From TrEMBL:
<keyword id="KW-0805">Transcription regulation</keyword>
<dbReference type="Pfam" id="PF00440">
    <property type="entry name" value="TetR_N"/>
</dbReference>
<dbReference type="InterPro" id="IPR023772">
    <property type="entry name" value="DNA-bd_HTH_TetR-type_CS"/>
</dbReference>
<dbReference type="Pfam" id="PF21935">
    <property type="entry name" value="TetR_C_45"/>
</dbReference>
<dbReference type="InterPro" id="IPR047923">
    <property type="entry name" value="ArpA-like"/>
</dbReference>
<dbReference type="GO" id="GO:0003700">
    <property type="term" value="F:DNA-binding transcription factor activity"/>
</dbReference>
<protein>
    <submittedName>
        <fullName>DNA-binding transcriptional regulator, AcrR family</fullName>
    </submittedName>
</protein>
<feature type="DNA-binding region" description="H-T-H motif">
    <location>
        <begin position="31"/>
        <end position="50"/>
    </location>
</feature>
<dbReference type="GO" id="GO:0000976">
    <property type="term" value="F:transcription cis-regulatory region binding"/>
</dbReference>
<feature type="domain" description="HTH tetR-type">
    <location>
        <begin position="8"/>
        <end position="68"/>
    </location>
</feature>
<keyword id="KW-0238">DNA-binding</keyword>
<dbReference type="InterPro" id="IPR050109">
    <property type="entry name" value="HTH-type_TetR-like_transc_reg"/>
</dbReference>
<dbReference type="InterPro" id="IPR054126">
    <property type="entry name" value="CprB_TetR_C"/>
</dbReference>
<keyword id="KW-0804">Transcription</keyword>
<dbReference type="InterPro" id="IPR009057">
    <property type="entry name" value="Homeodomain-like_sf"/>
</dbReference>
<dbReference type="InterPro" id="IPR001647">
    <property type="entry name" value="HTH_TetR"/>
</dbReference>
<dbReference type="InterPro" id="IPR036271">
    <property type="entry name" value="Tet_transcr_reg_TetR-rel_C_sf"/>
</dbReference>
């Protein structure tokens, strides 16, 4: 194996180990020695890639935000081109990843716990708000939102409500009921977004867990 490939593997191993440790202990509770032990590397190897704990935490955050949120085009592929369904699917997809992916959990925790000089964490939500706003704009073009809805304010509110919901889920149940909380979020949120009298035709389930749709009040 070439030196460059070994270095890339070591860096990836450190990010994964750091994510698991940050997720478990938080930023303040994690030491670089903890990460070295989890990754099975020396401190010299760690410092070759990351000069400080802040730099390592930023790498975990960046690893998460390289793939999230997914592109709007990719979301529309799984929703038959319907933007509002794509938005619902996105929330369930991210909720499922929060339960199962330590990198995502650690990144979310680090954004709230860490104090960095760099601006990236302070802009952590901007990509999400932009993606949600884009999907809402497409939903409006498809006639799926009520007239006069402030899309920017709605996007910011939805991201904020989702963020708060996952924090409450983490505190109360370790996010074991995350999917059910997302479902309740949409049951409460959609009547204010969709036109009056809109049919209950949105799938409020993760794609892999879809259940037969039961008639319900207009969503």
């Amino acid at each position: 194996m070439r030196k460059k490939e070994r270095a890339e593997l070591t860096r990836a191993k450190l990010i994964k180990a750091a994510a698991t440790t940050f997720d478990d202990k938080g930023f303040r509770g994690t030491s670089l020695q903890d990460v070295c032990e989890a990754a099975g590397v020396t401190k010299g190897a760690l410092y070759f890639h990351f000069p400080s704990k802040d730099a390592l935490a930023l790498a975990v955050i960046e690893e998460h935000y390289r793939g999230w949120p997914p592109s709007v085009d990719s979301l529309l592929l799984t929703s038959d081109g319907r933007a509002l369904q794509a938005l619902v699917d996105l929330s369930f997809q991210f909720g499922s990843q929060l339960v199962g992916d330590p990198v995502i959990r650690a990144a979310v925790r680090l954004v709230f716990e860490s104090e960095f000089d760099e601006p990236e964490p302070r802009r952590a939500f901007s990509g999400w708000i932009s993606a949600v706003n884009t999907l809402l704009e497409q939903a409006r073009a498809q006639g799926d939102t009520r007239d006069g809805l402030d899309l920017t304010a709605t996007a910011e509110l939805l991201v904020g409500v989702f963020t708060g919901s996952q924090l409450v889920a983490q505190s109360l149940t370790g996010r074991k009921d995350m999917i059910e909380r997302i479902r309740h979020l949409w049951v409460c949120f959609l009547p204010g977004v969709r036109p009056d009298g809109a049919p209950a035709d949105l799938r409020l389930e993760p794609l892999a867990l879809e259940r037969p749709r039961v008639a319900s009040p207009s969503l």
